[in-house]
């Protein structure tokens, strides 16, 4: 269970107050780990993020709120299996239930692919993404559901999505960079993220915020499948989270694995909390 | 390149002597790592086995042979991609080429699933397997190509295979244990392996020998996806390898990952060498 | 949640069948980690044991039972705090509740000290223990609640306990060895455990079985606070578990930490399951 | 022994020159590791700091001094035991001896709690602290000697201390943040540390400088019990050390554990040396 | 093989196009690991750099080039042995062959000592170096071929070299700092590297660029033998690489070991690629 | 300092009783780590052995002795440098001093090469060795002082040595196996060690006992440079130590590195203690 969240399955007072029906936010673990590039282990992402969040204070001074007061419920993990397409559909259903209950889904990856069903369920106008990679491939090794294609899939498959804003991207194939020049894509290189105002760019539209932890420089998040140097600093990522939170109706943090000393998971948990505090404070 | 093997791609004298055409054994790396159970990392198996074999002496006193004299060629890895079925077919082609060149394939996994195409290519009469698990499921999480089904697939899909002998097995589902009572399956629990004579059981038939490293007790091979305590000792495994080698026309060692300090890879490399020395000495 | 167990907090059918009231076994995590000797990390023991048990098959062939059919409920962890005495009292209450519900407590340590409150709650006649250490000190560094004193405390403080049988012990202070010569203590050195019949020694009395994972040789359980070479083999430990299970009304496995590649946790989870299968089969 | 320091126990010339009686600085290891929050291992802090300092050059160009010329003596570790209160008293005595010999104590933690006895012995006017946390709790889990309470304890229990300046703090309970608004506390968030002049704030008063390594961003010091993202950069910490050193009569670096690849210990050792070089140069 | 490079030994089309004779760049692994200071493991540097480069995209947007189009050939490793002097001579021959073929050598260390033979072979006018250390010792522990002496050796032994520019240096012995004041040495401390223009300083002279990965702050490259805090940020290093590349006729990246989670190797591989892209684009 | 030993440098009562002059045993750390084969890290061997011995009880029941009563003094480490020949000479001098003081040297490696100077100083009649390797090469990569040649060097260079008994050896070059057939060499393969009586073979002659930790199966000692499966069990090694101890005038344990979870160091420390207890008890 994410520290400070209520366990969806629990009975008693907690459930009365913030049981699924009244939840403001619902954590959904999505430990998918199948796209075959480099270092595996994103299946342990949800578990590690929850674990390394145990040390964080419940209270947030900036917004003067207690995390445990904000109505966060933890649904637990939607265990993955080998048929990715079926899994994504099932996951979409789970997230859609959250949306129907008027709560904000907080998805813990798992590989980036899990953003696709979450965005399908949330149906935002803009997909905002912190990522080292463009993830704009048509397919990777013939697989259109690879994590390297997720932003492309979202642009193509989710009707409500008008635009993708990719912050911190610093690498891609030629095809991806060309695709990135389309009107519906904005790429902000790491060097320019501090100066860029996402809020301005959103112009009040509904957003979904996806944090691929490899957007951070590997120093801050070595526990990820494909380290890409020259990345974002955590405070730059936090600023983006704060700016987008009030307009976001869905959130995920993905690509955390267990191959470091907890840095990636620690940062991931902190950004999720920052999202929750900022979103709640903006109401 | 496996230490002591020739690189298939190299030119010059080595190729003249043991180029693919004249090879006696061909190492094929098969870093498949997709079945979604527990600890991933078998994609690093071939690399680790080659690395930890670097310290072994070229010479073997028991058989008075040099490994580098035995005509072992390393084909390199057949890189995996997301479409498992297509990958297995491609891998089968690669191994079939080895067989057609009258060499013995030595497959480095990767997950156990890779034994299926290798056995298809080799077409043995008996499938001998060191494994903690029965691997006799019809499907696992709906996937008939999971590593947990490989022995069942081999029994069902490879016409030449009359029988499977599974040594060291100590766990399985009820369905698997029931299937194991079929006439075409022999299960030897770890406690009885030292007493069991595989050679007798083979009665001169052609065999394929598959070493799932988790057959060993976790103390000897912690770097594997699903540790299963109460397992085999390395000398018991070596004895099986020695006994089967003379009658085996194919060999693999699978399920080694990178999540230990090298114990699993070291044992895997040693068993492969033991196979080569014994097979060569029996000619 | 221990794999195959029901979550105590969950509603619905599972609870109907094996809710706390009808449970046969109740898992209680006791992540105490304060005695200041060498390698810390037993606080992660319960988590790791549950994690590494995920790969085990639900079905047990020997006893022809499914773990998930045996009425095991997981109470979750009783989180530790700095006042050890108060914590142990609280833990005793938790375990006593289990006993009153006529279920067998299965405690996951945490340091060995947690056996004391569990034994107090269970009130057995004999304390059977697999351990490298005698744990018979009057106090360690002035602390009578150190894990190095737990067997002494149990002998002195729990009125029902007539005797302690310590299997696999190979080290202790002179004071401990002298105490071990008392009529109420039997020490079986690792070399003799295979020959020793605990069942005979129990003569039908009620027992509590405590598995200090350091009873195993460090090769099989390096992830423990004080490795002690020349230890037991897992099959010897399993044999003891099988023999004692039918007469045991309480069980724990302790001293597992997170400083290895999962070997200690894997063995611990397996021995717990062996206990459950054997105890259930004997009814 | 800290590299470049003399061993207090050694005889001969070194002792003649910088034996305890003439030492300018005395290193005291305080491997306390009992407060039960998250990742343990601070007991290995002193050992790791000494080890990772072995690679540093003896000479410092900025101050044109040799570390080994500055009269640093290493007292070794004051081994911890279970009675924290008694331990802290003993430690206080050890540090008081250093002070009476007119040397500056350099304490190597161990958990932050060890600053309390050190400050008691040094009796400064101001407690300057680099820390991610406020450590201003009245008690944590009922324990007033938890590392999470150390700054509060120092403010309350040490008469000479007029004020605490906490640099880099970014989290705390509501109670702590409220306490931090007292006249005797100054909190400088990480973002403002570069601009803040501690020297100005000290106005010539005697200070004790405590470096909780978790003040650094986790990228620079992952080996600590409670990682807190969005932290200080090492150069910002160095600047504080340089500014405070001339007015400081006591120093510690705490909360380093063994759960990273040496980054935390390396930074800790460097900051200790920076303190010594700056303090010595200011005389 | 470095990802995107051709294997020198391979036959067929690749060799036709970019075989050794037509290569623009040649990767040479130099896994020397003998200087006896602190953490060993640079022998695994070439292997790790190649491995962690596997995830990088072939295409570079900034220069609009494909790495695999740039004529990079991988010679493999020049395996080290105990006679360092002889090894360096042999390595020099290997690099000289590259130079004679009019290709740019890209040496993968191994300890920094390997720059000496590479510079001897390349015969540049200026030795540009990113390093935490001055490496200007006459000898270290009596060994003039220690990695701590390599820049001194290059200045003294290679006739063509007029000057050494050391960027990011922050430590050295007094002797080294004094030597650094010679007219032929420029030291740029980490704090000033961002402002410093290497291109200006080069004035069109031929350069050799050596990247000692410990020039980076340990947060970005913990996997190196002697971590030295307060170092460079990767973007600062990248800027230097970009500036020098067009004038450099030789390149190396050294001192990467296997004692981290891949951060050092990942950064090293990225800087090598940046060098190649920039050099090629400048033609 | 080895736990239970006195520090040679300390003053006061301890030194009076067991100062160097009256010592019965002297621990000498010899962290040599230069022979270039595979996994480095033996330089950390002495440190790790001392560290992992901290958990062992001072008292030994079998011999009814306290380790701290037996007059063991720790000389500390003889720090290594690059000139191996000079280092070995210096080390020989250190060990010779021990011998002249009529104490038994206990050398902690470091690589196996350090046995050579120790044996030179001790001048035994028989060199008894537990090792996976024959170490009988004339030279390795041209280096006659490689750890792979140490037993050959001892046979050739130390006049008093009449014979080498190598227990647990299971690999070597053809040249080594041929040399092993000489009258002055006895090789006992791992399978036969349990049956072999070293005491009988010694016939009362003076022996030096060298424990290369890789003699153990990798399960028991993965932290060593060249793992060699199919090795000895710790109890078999202990039996050899007990048998030889009474006749041995020198002892070492070598080839322990820091690349495991402490298993190798733990076993090494235990075997050293077993040697001391047995030797002392036999007087
Ligand atoms: Mn992504
Ligand atoms: Mn990404
Ligand atoms: Mn299998
Ligand atoms: Mn298996
Ligand atoms: Mn115990
Ligand atoms: Mn114990
Ligand atoms: Mn603190
Ligand atoms: Mn803190
Ligand atoms: Mn350097
Ligand atoms: Mn350097
Ligand atoms: Mn040896
Ligand atoms: Mn050896």
TrEMBL record, chains A, B, C, D, E, F:
The keyword Manganese is assigned to this record: yes
EC number: 3.5.3.11
Keyword Cytoplasm attributed: no
Broad enzyme group: hydrolase
InterPro entries attached to this UniProt entry: Agmatinase-rel, Ureohydrolase, Ureohydrolase_dom_sf, Ureohydrolase_Mn_BS
Names of required cofactors: Mn(2+)
Cofactor binding remark: Binds 2 manganese ions per subunit.
GO molecular function, one term: agmatinase activity
GO biological process: putrescine biosynthetic process from arginine, via agmatine
UniProt keyword annotations, A-Z: Hydrolase, Manganese, Metal-binding
Pfam families in UniProt: Arginase (PF00491)
SUPFAM superfamilies: Arginase/deacetylase (SSF52768)
CDD domains: Agmatinase-like_2
Residue numbers binding Mn(2+): 112, 131, 133, 135, 212, 214
Sequence similarity: Belongs to the arginase family. Agmatinase subfamily.
Protein name: Agmatinase
Protein source organism: Natrarchaeobaculum sulfurireducens
């Amino acid at each position: 269970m994410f520290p400070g969240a209520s366990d969806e399955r629990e009975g008693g007072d907690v459930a009365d107050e913030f049981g699924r029906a009244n939840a403001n936010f619902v954590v959904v673990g999505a430990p998918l780990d199948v796209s075959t590039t480099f270092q595996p282990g994103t299946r342990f992402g949800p578990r590690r993020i929850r674990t390394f969040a145990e040390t964080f204070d419940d209270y947030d001074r900036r917004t003067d709120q207690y995390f445990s007061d904000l109505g966060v419920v933890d649904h637990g993990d939607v265990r993955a299996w080998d048929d990715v397409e079926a899994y994504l559909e099932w996951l979409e259903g789970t997230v859609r239930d959250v949306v129907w209950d008027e709560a904000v889904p907080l998805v813990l990856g798992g590989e980036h692919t899990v953003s696709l069903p979450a965005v399908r369920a949330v149906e935002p106008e803009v997909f905002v993404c912190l990522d080292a990679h463009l993830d704009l491939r048509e397919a990777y090794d013939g697989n259109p559901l690879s994590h390297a294609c997720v932003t492309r899939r979202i642009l193509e498959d989710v009707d409500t999505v008008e635009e993708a804003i990719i912050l911190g991207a610093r690498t891609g194939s030629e095809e991806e960079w060309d695709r990135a020049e389309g009107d519906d894509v904005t790429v902000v290189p790491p060097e320019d993220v501090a100066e860029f105002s996402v809020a301005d760019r959103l112009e009040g539209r509904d957003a979904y915020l996806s944090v691929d932890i490899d957007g951070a420089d590997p120093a801050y998040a070595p526990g990820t499948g494909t380290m890409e140097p020259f990345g974002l600093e955590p405070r730059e990522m936090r600023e983006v989270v704060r700016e987008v939170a009030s307009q976001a109706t869905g959130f995920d943090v993905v690509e955390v694995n267990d191959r470091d000393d907890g840095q990636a998971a620690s940062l991931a948990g902190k950004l999720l909390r920052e999202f929750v505090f900022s979103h709640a404070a903006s109401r």
